[in-house]
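Good morning C.,

I know you're traveling, so I'll keep this short. The sequence:
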Amino acid sequence: MSKSVALLGEYTPTFPPHASTNAAIEHSRKVLGADLSADWVSTADVEPKLFERYSGIWVAPGSPYKNIEKTLWAIRYARENNIPCFGTCGGFQHIVIEYARNVLGFKDAQHAEYDPYASKLFISQLACSLAGREMQLSFVPGSQVATVYGGLSATEHYYCNFGVNPDCILELKQGPLSISGSDIEGEVRVIEYPGHPFFIGTLFVPQTRSTPEVPHPLVTAFLGAVVGSAA
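The tokens, ready to paste straight into the viewer:
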């Protein structure tokens, strides 16, 4: 049975992470031999019928999005209904905001890209931009991401200027969300929701390292979860 993934974001063909997302999906789809398609959906066009058509969502790089509230609604729906959800770069950041608002109860949790003077910034501008950098990561033993990689470390590429506000890390750890990956400086780079088929956010952009010969394991695992999900 054919399955479809919604790529939530404002698609720009010349934006490298978007082109890499399309390519990485094709790499992994071929490895899986899956009858699977992916469509870009502007965050302004997200509506309740989204999940009647799509079996998974990939919240893509390229924020600010046209509609943050609709984006957070889609993330929440996927989290609460066991629908595979993958967030990379800006997607990771919005997963954090959704979780802070709807699980931790910080209704004023905000992203500095939208409101830099908000009183509760869970996502803040990085002191040093990660755009264009490659960094080594360490994964928590027994985590889903460690299982996907088949190891406890990896080197990944970044394309972002925002990340988890260091002042909010203790609060972020108060609920069930797991911080399952960090860089050599100990900063939060991977999060996952336990007990969910696939609910993972990465501040890095794994799709940029995918190749036809070596599809990225995270992309393959995400699509595998979509293919295996209920209609």
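Safe travels,
E.
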